[in-house]
Amino acid sequence: MTNHWIDIRNADVILIMGSNAAENHPISFKWVTEAKKRGATLLSVDPRFTRTSSKADVFAPLRSGSDIAFIGGMINYILQNNLYHKDYVRLYTNGPFLVNTNFKMPGELDGVFSGYDPQKRKYNKKAWAFQTNAAGEARKDPGMTSPHCVLQLMKKHYSRYDIDTVSKITGTPKDLIEKVYQIYASTGKPNKVATIMYAMGWTQHTVGTQNIRAMAIVQLLLGNIGRAGGGVNALRGESNVQGSTDHCLLFHILPGYLKTPKASQPTLQAYNDKYTPKTKEPLSANWWANYPKYSVSLLKAHYGAHATKDNDFGYSWLPKLDDGQNASWLMIFHEMMQDKFKGFFAWGQNPTCSGSNAGKVRTALAKLDWMVNVNLFDNETGSFWRGPGVNPADIKTEVFFLPAAASMEKEGSITNSGRWAQWRYKAQEPQGQSLPDSEIINGLFYRVKALYDKDGGTYPDPVTKLWWNYGQTGPDSTINTHMIAKEINGYFMEDTETKGKPRKKGTLVPSFAHLKDDGSTCSGNWLYCNSYTEKGNMMARRSQKDPTGMGLYPEWSWCWPVNRRIIYNRASVDEYGRPWDPSRPVIKWDAAAKGGKGGWVGDVPDGGWPPMKNPDGSTNPKTKKAYIMKPAGVAHIFGPGRADGPFPEHYEPLECPIQENPMSKKHRINPTAKLFFELADDKRAKEGGGSPEDIFYSCDIRYPYVATTYRLTEHWQTGVMTRHQPWQLEMMPQIFVEMSKELAAEKGIKNGDKVKVSSGRGAIWARAIVTGRFKPFKVMGATVHQVGLPWCFGWQYPEDGSGGDSANLLTPTIGDANTMIPETKAFMVNVEKI
User: Fold this and answer.
1) Tally of CB atoms within 10 A around 406
2) Do the beta carbons of residue 824 and residue 813 sit within 8 Å?
């Protein structure tokens, strides 16, 4: 979240799209209820009428996979009706920037932008470059009237997304589209603000990244970023997803969103040079210029005294990705299928139910020599070798189960959707032989290190040189999580000086502004530097003081970065530091503060620089632009770094009910999405006389209905933690498929009937729920039916199989072009009565 949960109450308009917050975030939904009490309007856009929809002032149904068409239409509506916040766009976005004169867009190139290579399925992003002056700065048109400026290009691009076209693609009635647009676009005024709440319904698509970018563009056009009641707010599906991402859950990042090194970066200098952005913009803070300070401090946290300037601070010991290597979730199991893995740790996960194309995942696990399942309970992954249709005698994989402690059985922090890191105490001791994850990892470390010390190895240093200082005494000892938290914050590794003050070796670094690239500081994650200081554990704070009255609660827990509750908050003011909306100030410039020197009051500002203008209207030479993490200092409504284009464009899902993309005859799906070809695809292609890729550009009439997956209030993720609880299983005992009354009548299916749901990957049985929550869509003149299935069931429990199996046995293997997240929210199935 750019903002936080409590801040939702400050919104005038709330759009919930790609999320069912009332059911999947029921406690946090109270802030939506509070906003409504204060007069806010709630909009729900969803394929299904949900409990969230029941609380909405306006519900608009849309077909899964057509979100960019819907949001693109909103962008068009805002621009055509001149409803955007002109000063915000001029000051805080790249709307005035001039793009090179040869740049062309999908309306001119039948579905792609300039620079597309159809053989590589990849763009040359240099084709999207800005014009520059002699000093290397991007040329700008402050009036934003040039046909080559970003704003006018955007207007041209989205002029194709008129309400008639959007309705034909999405299946949403035109009157509801216009009503949603009208209400949301009304917040492009300084005294109005709107927020978006989204979740996996937006991300799990081949255009997932661009779904979010499309809404970010809307928020920037309306001036809703950095402001109270605004922002782009992701609702994380688990209480520590934000924290796990911050601490490098994903293959392409290190803690604090540093980049994973590549083989072509053999030295620390080469690595830092590659990822430290340069800028020619004189008013840009370009905060990522501090990258070397954060990377060196991270290496010191990893390797301690072993990391010295002479050995590049141990940079050579960090694992490197091969250039072009894709080590994402989908690729792990794809390569496992090809016998490229010997072993696998399934740690706190259940991929045979949670992974898309779960049948492929189950087959892949059988290729391993060994697997370790670390979890609270046995699950479908740990017992894959005895699953439906599997003969245990045919499985060579040796499976080990390590019982883990539950969250209430260990002490530590979680970081929620709003970036608030909150310390949790241990409520009870772990049960039976279960251990906290940290102690399991500690045992592994000591035992692996002992083997290296005893027998040697090809390359022991990355393990034997680790700085392991968490209060432990050996492989079976407890871990002091406070010491982990302190290392994440960071220490001064030697006596030094920062900000004109002496710093003593062994003391905690007060904030990331004090980190250095000379080895005198360490920090396990620069973003969390300030979370545990000499003043104590900031994450454990529980003060309910709210001095601004805006719900910031600055002394309740701790929020990254540096306890800033709303990021990019200097965009919440005008050039003179005055809040756009004085009734909802996040920060404001007080000329009398700091003994007359002036300063910001309110939230922790995005940097202490003064406003852009002096009171007399002259430019303040000490100012820096508000978007400090961007090299140019402004937000990107034109995004030159994305894999699939600088503006979001509608493409159909891999599987969809229409033969052509209404926006482009030549490119039905995202032209840069990662495609996976299996042996069966090659066989089908040869039999059909085409190439494997041809398969992905045709609709399969055997599967005529759009399907999507979702969660339930009664179950947690794949259900491992909740299906074992009899009271929760009683509330929601087995898998079901929701369908409209119209589809049920067409198929002769009644409520409660047992049906078969099948796709190109496999089939499952489910109970039919015939409901008015789904309605048929009218898409491109044809009737399109959609169904929905929860993905929280599996065969392993209940033990009699009465719960059914995972809906992900039906979902496809294909990834978003930027993140490789699977497309599980829009695919095609058939439904038949058994």
Assistant:
1) 14
2) no
